Amino acid sequence: MANKEAHQQWLAEQTAKSKEKQVSFINGISSKLGRARSVGAPAHPFRGAPEFWREFEWPVDERAEKFMENFRAVGGHSLRLGSMVEAKQFVVDKAAELSAKYIIRQNQPELAEMDLESALPEAKVSVWNSDPEEQWKARAAEADFGVVVVDYAAAYTGSMTVLSSKDKGRSVSLLPTVLIAIIPIERLRTRLGEVLVEFDQAGREQLPAGIHFISGPSRSADIENDLTIGVHGPGVVYAIIVG
Fold this sequence. Notes:
40% helix; alpha/beta; 12 strands
């Protein structure tokens, strides 16, 4: 017990000495700057984004143009189509162009209505989590294409947001070689803050298992800034705005 008390006293002494050094160091800087050291917490008259930014919003057509511009700037592919029928044809044509043999899609009503299974008779199309006996992460890793309908998108940052659930596995957008992400125009916002505020308002208990932001293909760089595409996710990403 005596050793423990002695050790605690030694720690307290070292902590006090460390704080004295910190104060001396900051005082030295303040002296060289010719002003007194601030000892109180700084005032924060504003919290969060300024009001002008909260009100900033592009018209819907400009939103679509800015999103595509920003998404392409980071190496992604983006286009705008008029309907889900056109989006379906794009997927079919791209699968033929790239000789895709295995496609995995999220278990979403919009994708079920597209009926890619019938439109791609020469490819195998699997629906995430539709068979409890299947190893779905392994199937996603084998897939040539992953197809998802995103939950939100932000034009200013060129970002898409996908939420995880039992019907929407993260692996579908993360593991296939190519990702095709469909963005219904009504889900395209101007600012990322418009998306984030909805999660905040929902509350912790209502948050999904995962919230994932996608801003183009996977890009990785080492300490020498040697850029590699596709290491931690799809190397090719198509963002299709519909509407």
